[in-house]
Amino acid sequence: MSTIKIKRSGTGGQAPTAGNLVSGELALNYADGKLFIKDASNNVKEMVGPNMFSDLPTSDPAVAGSLWYDAGTVKISAG
Predict the structure, then answer these.
(1) Helices assigned H by DSSP within the chain
(2) CA 51 vs CA 31, 47, 63, 69: distances in Å
(3) pLDDT tens digit string along 45-74?
């Protein structure tokens, strides 16, 4: 079995920059429990961690199956 390693840091509060990653590459900060990815537009995005739902609407979008964020809970709209 092969081992896959991604870029990683154990220093709290540290995040990769666009210059640290290539598009599609992952980086992990195991001190904070955050996972990052560089997208095709050269942006580093937090995939998992406290801010992972920051792009979701905060009220029900009224579109069945759409996700929204309500006071610490991710919900699925019934439409």
Answers:
(1) none
(2) 15, 8, 23, 11
(3) 888 766 667 778 899 989 888 888 888 788
Show the tokens assigned to 9.
């840091």
Max CA-CA distance within the chain? 46
Whole-number Å distance between alpha carbons of 7 and 9: 7
pTM of the model: 0.61
Q: How far is CA 19 from the centre of its chain?
A: 18
- Whether residue 19 has pLDDT greater than 70: yes
Contact predicate 42/22, CB 8 Å: no
**Short-list 35, 36, 72, CA closest to 56:** 72
Beta strands in 1-79 (DSSP E): 7-9, 26-29, 34-38, 44-48, 67-70, 73-76
